[in-house]
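Shift notes (night). Ran Alkyl hydroperoxide reductase while the centrifuge was going.
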Amino acid sequence: MNSDYTTKLHAGTVFPDITATLLSGESVNLAKPKAGFDWKLVLVYRGKHCPLCTRYLNQLEQFKDALADIGVDIIAVSGDSKAQLEAHNEQLEISYDISYGLSIEQMKTLGLYISDPRSEQETDHPFAEPGLFVINTEGHIQVVDISNNPFVRPELQALVNGLAWIRNPDNNYPIRGMHK
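Came back to this:
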């Protein structure tokens, strides 16, 4: 297989062991929820250069409590540098974890689409297009959404409502999309 291509992750498989760095310098495993949570939502965003990402990250903050109520922790990650995240943080109004330093190899492992910047003014490195993963208690991918552009992302209210429904044991809802 040509190394220029990514391999898409499949629903129901174990989320890969990938670490990123918080602004504090702490290294975090993307799939591991904080204490008190048993599921994890991993949001991959393009980077500081993307105004749609900034808006989406800020919108996600509005759903943090609803996700916490159903046991879902949140982390956002990009391939930006620490300096880029520090600058971006001034535009963000979020209280969930955000990390930086996702490598191209990690982007490929996650099955993300990767783009080159259109100019040096946009950014100085290849970056991942949006991806969203929800990892369940067993570390398996319960929900996956991968886009090849910034214009297509899950509608957050529908996502949160769906996760609440999935998490309700009375619904006994399995992981969907298991045929490969």
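Helices lie at 51-61, 64-69, 82-89, 104-109, 156-167. The mean pLDDT is 92.
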